[in-house]
Amino acid sequence: MTEEIAKQERWFETLYAQASAYLTNPDTWITIGAIVLKILLIIILSRIVVALVQAAVNRVFQHRRGSKLQIEQRRVDTLRVLVNNVARYSIYFLAILLTLQQLGVDLRPVLVSAGVLGLAVGFGAQSLVRDVITGFFIIFEDQFAVGDVVTINNMTGTVQEIGLRITRIRSWTGEVHIFPNGSITQVTNYSLQNTLAVVDVSVAYEEDLDNVERVLKEIIKKAQDEVPDIVAEPQLLGVHAFGPMEVIMRVTAECKPNTHHGVSRKLRAMIKREFDARGIEIPYPRLVFQPKGQA
To answer: What are the transmembrane regions (predicted)?
Structure first.
């Protein structure tokens, strides 16, 4: 028992002597300092390269606007965001590999293990694979792009970012909704085609319909000249319906994508002002008080 204790003490003394010799050796600290310095340089250079690549990508896509080969701006913005994301992830992955190399890790087993791990993840994380594949087809088929106003899974907003895994949209009240691409089952895009502004105009039954139609035609002709979002001559469809107190007439105007709400508001304001100036009555509920005792 005493011999075993003495042997352990000699082993600890030897280990302590080796550790002290290693830590007090100037070459050790020079080597460690060089490794730390190289890792810091890799981190700094990777961030600089990411910034330079993103600036170059943004510049290239800005120059694309004036080139002879014209591409829709919505697609240009989408591709710009996607290329920036891929470049950033690729540079950071390379920086991680270089850091591991400085720490003495053999990269060949790491790369082989990464391939095996990627295959395992592919089987285990099927939702992630579905998100990536769906994101690829969203971009390839140009279903929607950055800046489009869309409804995704009953959520409406402006597309802020399209990645291979997620899509971000911002609603008009400021909320940001994030959708995994694999969960996107229904998309309505309001920015692809011209939209139609529909305005229903109510007039009293006592009004002369011929006069009302003549005034409305003057208004929509004026609106075509004054409202830049209207792309075709507005149409007066005539009497659309009969209400309890009013005759409803319908006006339509083809306008630029996703501008129909603003055009509708401008048309209503123009119609109201012109009806007031021409003495055309827009019906509204009235209360008539009958004094007590009078028939």
So the answer is: 29-57, 78-98, 110-129
